[in-house]
UniProtKB/TrEMBL annotation:
GO terms for molecular function: DNA binding. This is Truncated CmeR. Residues 35-54 bind DNA. The gene is cmeR. The keyword Cell wall biogenesis/degradation does not apply. Residues 12-72 form the HTH tetR-type domain.
């Protein structure tokens, strides 16, 4: 596949189908127990579809993780932007409620377990993904709000507060 070409709608639709099937299998069978053969059988795709679009099972997993994180980031961003000029308390409450909305879904909890299972991956795939995807993390939303505060304590404690929210 020529990497300089924009994929056709058909290719994009096939990739979305593969990702949807893979996510469902990862959630029901687990990441380790899901094979590319399982994904291909249920998605109607092929090995070449997966290798051309995602390079590997790990690449497919991290593409799904990208999609989920972006979806969550946009939800949190939109919820906090609804009260853009609110007080810090209102913004943090909105942020917290958005987190609850996200992590009160069984799919998010199950996918979180899969992510945690990858923490000790000797090849550091998850660590590398985290290092390369900081822009899609929710604490970036809070960083903007913390920077806007006229409170010297908030400015001083900004990094500590962000660290706390990064753990959440």
């Amino acid at each position: 596949m020529n990497s300089n070409r924009t994929p056709s709608q058909k290719v994009l639709a096939r990739q979305e189908k593969i990702k949807a099937v893979a996510l469902e299998l990862f959630l029901t069978k687990g990441y380790q127990e899901t094979s590319l053969s399982d994904i291909i059988k249920l998605s109607g795709g092929s090995y070449s579809n997966i290798y051309d679009g995602f390079k590997s099972k790990e690449g497919l997993f991290f593409e799904i993780l990208d999609d989920i994180c972006k979806k969550h980031f946009h939800l949190i961003y939109s919820k906090t932007q609804e009260i853009e000029n609110g007080t810090l308390k209102e913004i943090l409450t909105s942020f917290g409620l958005a987190f609850i909305e996200i992590f009160n879904q069984p799919e998010a909890v199950a996918f979180g377990k899969i992510i945690y299972s990858q923490v000790y991956d000797k090849d550091r795939h998850l660590a590398n993904w985290i290092e390369n995807n900081q822009q899609n993390f929710s604490y970036n939303i809070l960083m903007g709000f913390f920077k806007q505060q006229n409170n010297s304590y908030m400015k001083k404690m900004q990094k500590n507060l962000l660290f706390f929210f990064a753990l959440c």
